[in-house]
């Protein structure tokens, strides 16, 4: 299992490197596909759809495609309109097919659109910014980097359980190690690229360390939130797409939460 997980992780990182460095239409298209798969995994968990695409899920998928098209065309002023349209259409399906769907399925349809598609789109938004090719990696340092650091520290010295009923393997020591590790990675990364951003070294190192530390804290919330949804619906993994990791949401659960936070922190600090 460890070997499979390691190989899958290496392949995933390699794909992420290639796609994000390329940026533009390639990045937008890949994020769209990831979002659609992630929404499908969540919709199945929340019983919004089963074997066939339901009208509720279809509204979410179409809304996701429209949202990414507007983001790619830099028509961000209209993305709120898409979100409102998705909500209205979801409620219309609820009304005109009543009593086919329960309220939690209806709210789940809109939640899946916002939680997966809208929040993941911040990766593209950050990459499209000035110096975005350098800033976008903060998302992954804060999420995947902190996750790795937390795992290592937790395995070595973890004794106090953080959320025993939700995720018994996570420890307070691991959480602290994850935040500290992310801050350290952010500082090292800033020092390595300071010449690329034409910034003051000390200021950039401090900014990146703070951004990654805050991102690491949010990363834990994203990870635990995804675990809570799985436990509420009695499933082990969201899918089987990535060997050793599970589905898209199993691997991107923390990235989904971290992406918008890092995006706005980068706007504020950098």
Structure report:
The protein is mainly alpha-helical and 270 residues long. The protein is 78% helix and 3% strand. The protein is built from ten helices and two strands, in the order αααααααββααα. A two-stranded antiparallel sheet has the order 1-2. The longest helix is centred in the last third of the chain and has 32 residues, at 201-232. The N and C termini lie far apart (40 Å).
Mean pLDDT: 91
* C-alpha Rg (nearest Å): 19 Å
Shape: globular
Distance between termini? Answer: 40 Å
Multimeric state:
single chain
Poorly predicted runs: none
Biggest sheet: strands, sense, closure? 2 strands, antiparallel
SSE class: mainly alpha
Record the SSE blueprint.
Layout lengths: L1 H21 L1 H22 L9 H18 L6 H18 L6 H26 L3 H4 L1 H21 L3 E3 L3 E5 H26 L3 H32 L15 H22 L1
Helix pairs in contact: 2-3, 2-5, 3-4, 3-5, 4-5, 5-10, 7-8, 7-9, 7-10, 8-9, 9-10
Features:
2 strands, 270 residues, 78% helix
């Amino acid at each position: 299992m460890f070997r499979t997980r390691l190989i899958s992780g290496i392949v995933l990182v390699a794909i992420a490197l290639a796609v994000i460095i390329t940026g533009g239409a390639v990045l937008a298209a890949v994020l769209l596909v990831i979002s659609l798969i992630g929404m499908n995994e969540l919709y199945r968990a929340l019983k919004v759809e089963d074997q066939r695409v339901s009208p509720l899920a279809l509204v979410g998928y179409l809304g996701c495609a429209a949202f990414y098209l507007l983001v790619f065309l830099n028509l961000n002023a209209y993305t709120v309109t898409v979100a409102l349209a998705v909500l209205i259409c979801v409620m219309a399906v609820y009304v005109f097919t009543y009593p086919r769907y329960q309220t939690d399925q209806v709210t789940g349809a809109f939640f899946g659109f916002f939680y997966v598609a809208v929040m993941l789109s911040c990766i593209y938004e950050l990459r499209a910014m000035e110096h975005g090719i350098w800033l976008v990696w903060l998302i992954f340092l804060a999420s995947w980097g902190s996750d790795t650091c937390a795992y290592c520290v937790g395995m070595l010295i973890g004794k106090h359980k953080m959320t025993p009923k939700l995720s018994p393997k996570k420890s307070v020591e691991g959480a602290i190690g994850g935040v500290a590790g992310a801050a350290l990675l952010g500082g090292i990364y800033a020092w390595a690229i300071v010449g690329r951003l034409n910034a003051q070294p000390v200021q950039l190192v401090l900014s990146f360390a703070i951004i990654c530390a805050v991102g690491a804290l949010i990363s834990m919330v994203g990870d635990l939130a995804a675990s809570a949804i799985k436990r509420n619906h009695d499933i082990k993994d969201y899918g089987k797409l990535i060997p050793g990791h599970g589905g898209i949401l199993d691997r991107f659960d923390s990235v989904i939460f971290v992406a918008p936070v890092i995006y706005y922190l980068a706007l504020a600090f950098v």
